[in-house]
Design a protein that fits this description.
Helices cover 33% and strands 17% of the residues. By secondary structure, the protein is α+β, with helices and mostly antiparallel strands. It has a single domain, classed as Alpha-Beta Complex (Cathepsin B, Chain A), CATH 3.90.70.10. The protein starts with a helix and ends in a 9-residue tail after the last strand.
Length: 227
């Protein structure tokens, strides 16, 4: 017979899934519903430490890099269908000189599921529509080393990580700057470029709704990141 604590845990996970939305917003989100605030034991299973809004800092467009796509507004009865996944896909393709808008990627199959756009959906879309790039879903054991290696060799990385209030967010990582505690990752999001502390991004990326380090990366290199 299941214990009462186990039942509360499962119930908490259910409430958390109902409360979460697909993508973080660049501004402060509204308060989480009261039901979700009572599920601290469930949060540890679903998500590693989230990245706070203030940790994503807008920066100037790096020399020679294209302007990222603006992220379309969320849809759905409760605006639960965010568009950060399709936007990350469009931004990644932009780096390979492929013109696909976030709306086109969304309609083409890189779209929302219960807990957001899944990495397997993005990988499947890219395999079907842009097989020449050799894109695949990865779950690296060492997130920091994986990012450094891929980005330094011309491979943009689509990263899915936790944000505040049980939200999550997809970005396209394009480079790193600095070393040690000052090392940051440069990402495309919300029509601009942002820097994120590497250690905090890796922590927020390590467990996204029970999925370990979800990332999509292509075998092909982009000349834009090899300047």
């Amino acid at each position: 017979m299941r214990s009462a604590s186990w039942k509360r845990r499962v119930w908490g996970i259910g409430l958390a899934l109902v409360a979460m939305t697909a993508c973080a917003a660049p501004a402060e989100d509204e308060a989480v519903p009261e039901a979700a605030e009572t599920t601290e034991d469930a949060v540890g299973i679903l998500q590693s430490a989230p990245l706070a809004h203030g940790e994503m800092r807008r920066i100037a467009t790096p020399p020679g890099m294209p302007k990222p796509y603006e992220q379309p507004d969320s849809t759905g009865l409760f605006e639960e269908r965010g568009k950060c996944g399709p936007t990350a896909v469009a931004n990644t393709l932009l780096l390979y000189w492929v013109g696909v808008t976030p709306a086109q990627a969304d309609q083409g199959g890189a779209h929302h599921w219960l807990i957001g756009t899944m990495g397997r959906q993005i990988a499947s879309y890219l395999r079907n529509e842009h097989s020449e790039l050799g894109c695949s879903l990865q779950h690296p054991a060492d997130g920091a080393a994986f990012l450094r290696n891929q980005l330094s060799t011309g491979h943009p990385v689509m990263v899915w990580f936790n944000t505040e209030n049980l939200n999550s967010h997809w970005v396209t990582a394009v480079g790193t700057r600095g070393t040690g505690d000052a090392e940051v990752v440069i990402v495309m999001s919300w029509g601009s470029y942002y820097s994120i502390p590497l250690k905090k991004l890796v922590a927020a990326w390590s467990n996204v709704y029970g999925i370990h380090n979800p990332a999509v990366v292509c075998a092909d290199k982009t000349t834009l990141m090899q300047r």
